Amino acid sequence: MSIGALQGFTGSVSLKVTGVPSRVTASFNPATVNIRAGQTVEWRNTSIIGHTVTDNPPAAANAADSTLPPGAIPFSSGDIPAGKIFAYKFTVPGTYRYFCTHRVVEISKLYPDGS
């Protein structure tokens, strides 16, 4: 996920965390999102199992799974139970690569929108 440099834009973006426990198909949907600084992103767990939304390089099994822009603070949702929502307000512009600590295959990005 990347955040454009525009400050003061408000509103939220909703994403889904999906997955089937018997398959390795868990994912963030959509996998790539463009937002602006100041927007809040909501992840809704539509799976029947718990997930996390984590962007913390020391917590990543693979260093490439987590990217924070300079000045951004690492974050983690903790376990998001099925049917629940985690929301996070992004204030630092840049690219974020986040993952689920339970399932390494769940990696997603937010990209700059050029605003």
The side-by-side strand order for the widest beta sheet comes to 1-4-10-9
Order of helices and strands: EEEEEEEEEE
CATH class: Mainly Beta
Mean pLDDT: 74
Number of domains: 1
- Quickly count the helices: 0
CATH structural architecture: Sandwich
- Proportion of residues in β-strands: 35-45%
Structural class by helix and strand composition: mainly beta
Largest sheet: 4 strands, mixed, barrel
Proportion in helices: under 10%
CATH topology: Immunoglobulin-like
Tell me the Rg in angstroms: 13 Å
* Count of extended strands: 10
Query: Separation of termini?
Result: 14 Å
Spans of at least 5 consecutive residues whose pLDDT stays below 50 are 2-12, 20-25
Q: What is the CATH superfamily label?
A: Cupredoxins -  blue copper proteins
Shape: globular
Task: Give a description of the structure.
The chain has 115 residues and is an all-beta fold. Helix content is 0%, strand content 38%. It has strands spanning 2-4, 12-18, 27-29, 32-36, 40-45, 54-55, 75-76, 85-89, 94-99, 107-111. A 4-stranded mixed barrel has the order 1-4-10-9. It is globular and about 35 Å long.
Throw out a few tags for this protein.
globular, four-stranded mixed sheet, four-stranded mixed barrel, Immunoglobulin-like, mainly beta
Helices and strands in order:
Blueprint: E1 2-4, E2 12-18, E3 27-29, E4 32-36, E5 40-45, E6 54-55, E7 75-76, E8 85-89, E9 94-99, E10 107-111
What would a concise description of this structure say?
This protein has strands at 2-4, 12-18, 27-29, 32-36, 40-45, 54-55, 75-76, 85-89, 94-99, 107-111. The chain has 115 residues and is mainly beta. It has a single domain (2-111), classed as Sandwich (Immunoglobulin-like).
